[in-house]
């Protein structure tokens, strides 16, 4: 289903969204036959529960969706999206909606529930469409959903069809559709242009490593998004075990998320100057692979001792961040599927982030709640800087000890952003099991919260 609402002129079925506490009073206003029917079905208005009310001809007069209780709703999000797949094919218009609900959030959830990855097989998908509720910005919600669909499609595509070549093609296509400038630096040209870490990580891959660079907008504050584009990660010579390698097509989830966000920003025509940088590589095993104990020199002159070739994401990001910082943008954001430690800390559903700005953290925390896009601030804990300093070089890409892995990775990246205002998201990029509006598979994290926060963060 496209990321769009049904036209307002469509023939619609009324949809009543009812809380458990309001069910009795709502049923009392129904015709006796419909009230008796609803009681006979056992409908209790539990969260995600659905019932259909018949008309006198045996058709559907209306649909009812349970909105549960406040306590149950607090355990999830996109509650009407839980009901949408249970409804028969048709076009629905919300006729009753509880005061406790957020119409815009629930409408977006319905759009997101319509996503289905169909590149390799027609898998059906959501049959029920929704007319946009009154008083919501339907065009904005459709744009946000379309950006999320792009992110999901990119992550869900396996590395055989989403290597550096395909990621470049997707980025170039996005630039062309929005009249943005695009360049790509590939292969040994990375060495000529002083991107040694990107080259080192990707030089053993079957497709040349590269740095993708998209620019859009001529006025307003400067926002640079940097996304980790490791299209597949074997771990390199520190080879991952099979259980850890199985989901590594998603290791370009940071790139996918910033590209989806960029699509949204450009479609909405936000008044800013946008730059997107994606170091696109495969971390492969071959005679050209970089090695443990190698010492590499980054773009900004810092030397890095390689103590684990599976800590490659921070390396490719380092060169891209150093380039971004040279222009001193008003905001620099990195998004990356960077550490397993972040998953241990907050699980797969929350995007931890790092920033030195208390103001930005306050704004982002508020918009995350508004947008049902959970994030959690983590500390740039400066005393841990010694953990990433190996002695033999300026930095260690994989400090031992097993402690604070997400924090030390963030501190590593901070060494490359100079004094530029910076936020780093250590995302997972994957939905482990089906949930309302989030089918199992690739998923964007943090992008909606950041999008909503940008006007206040950048004062636009």
Structure description:
By secondary structure, this protein is an alpha/beta fold. It has two domains: 13-136, Leucine Aminopeptidase, subunit E, domain 1; 142-458, Aminopeptidase. Helices cover 34% and strands 21% of the residues. The strands form four sheets. Strands 6, 7, 8, 9, 10, 13, 14, 15 and 17 form a nine-stranded mixed β-sheet that branches. It has a five-stranded mixed β-sheet with strand order 2-3-1-4-5, with helices on both faces. A three-stranded mixed β-sheet has the order 11-12-16, with helices on one face. A hairpin with a 5-residue loop joins strand 2 (50-54) and strand 3. The radius of gyration is 24 Å and the shape is elongated. The two termini are 33 Å apart. InterPro entries: Leucine_aapep/pepB, Macro_dom-like, Peptidase_M17_C, Peptidase_M17_N_1.
Number of domains: 2
Give start-end ranges of low-pLDDT stretches: none
Instruction: Give the CA-based shape.
Output: elongated
Helix content, binned percent: 25-40%
Rg is 24 Å
CATH superfamily of the largest domain: Zn peptidases
Q: Which fold name corresponds to the CATH topology of the largest domain?
A: Aminopeptidase
Provide mean pLDDT, rounded.
Answer: 97
The CATH architecture of the largest domain would be: 3-Layer(aba) Sandwich
Biggest sheet: strands, sense, closure?
9 strands, mixed
What's the CATH first level of the largest domain?
Alpha Beta
**C-alpha termini separation:** 33 Å
The counted number of beta strands is 19
Number of helices: 16
Q: Class by helix and strand content?
A: alpha/beta
Q: What percentage of amino acids are in beta strands?
A: 15-25%
Domain Cytosol aminopeptidase: 308-315
GO biological process, one term: proteolysis
Organism: Rhodovulum imhoffii
Keywords: Aminopeptidase, Hydrolase, Manganese, Protease
């Amino acid at each position: 289903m496209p990321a769009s609402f049904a036209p307002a002129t469509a023939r619609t079925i009324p949809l009543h969204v009812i809380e458990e506490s309001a069910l009795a009073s709502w049923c009392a206003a129904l015709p006796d036959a419909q009230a008796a029917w609803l009681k006979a079905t056992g409908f209790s208005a539990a969260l995600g529960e659905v019932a259909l009310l018949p008309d006198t001809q045996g058709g559907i007069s209306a649909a009812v969706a349970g909105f549960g209780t406040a306590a149950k709703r607090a355990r999830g999000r996109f509650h009407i999206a839980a009901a949408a797949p249970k409804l028969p094919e048709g076009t629905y218009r919300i006729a009753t909606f509880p005061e406790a609900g957020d119409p815009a959030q629930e409408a977006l959830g319905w759009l997101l529930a319509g996503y289905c990855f169909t590149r390799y097989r027609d898998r059906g998908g959501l049959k029920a469409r929704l007319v946009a509720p009154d008083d919501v910005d339907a065009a904005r919600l459709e744009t946000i959903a379309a950006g999320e669909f792009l992110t999901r499609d990119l992550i869900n595509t396996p590395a055989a069809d989403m290597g550096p070549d395909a990621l470049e093609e997707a980025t170039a296509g996005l630039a062309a559709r929005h009249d943005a400038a695009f360049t790509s630096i590939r292969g040994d040209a990375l060495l000529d242009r002083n991107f040694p870490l990107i080259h080192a990580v990707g030089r053993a891959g079957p497709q040349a490593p590269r740095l993708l660079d998209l620019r859009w907008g001529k006025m307003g504050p400067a926002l640079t998004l940097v996304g980790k584009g490791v299209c597949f990660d074997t771990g390199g010579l520190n080879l991952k075990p099979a259980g850890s390698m199985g989901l590594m097509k998603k290791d370009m989830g940071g790139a996918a998320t910033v590209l989806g966000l960029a699509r949204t920003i450009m479609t909405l025509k936000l008044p800013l100057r946008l730059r997107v940088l994606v170091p696109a590589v495969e971390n492969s095993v071959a005679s050209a692979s970089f090695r443990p104990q190698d010492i590499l020199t980054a773009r900004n002159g810092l030397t890095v001792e390689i103590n684990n070739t599976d800590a490659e994401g921070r390396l490719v990001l380092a060169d891209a961040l150093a380039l971004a910082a040279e222009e001193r943008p008003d905001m620099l954001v990195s998004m990356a599927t960077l550490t397993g430690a972040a998953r241990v800390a907050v699980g797969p559903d929350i995007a931890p982030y790092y920033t030195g700005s208390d103001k930005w953290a306050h704004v982002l925390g508020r918009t995350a709640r508004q947008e049902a896009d959970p994030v959690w601030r983590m500390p740039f804990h400066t005393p841990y800087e010694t953990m990433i300093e190996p002695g033999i070089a300026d930095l260690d890409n994989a400090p031992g000890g097993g402690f604070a892995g997400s924090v030390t990775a963030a501190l590593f990246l901070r060494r490359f952003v100079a004094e530029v205002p910076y936020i780093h998201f250590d995302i997972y990029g994957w939905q482990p099991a089906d949930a309302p509006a989030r089918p199992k598979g690739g998923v964007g994290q943090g992008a909606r919260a950041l999008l909503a926060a940008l006007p206040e963060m950048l004062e636009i």
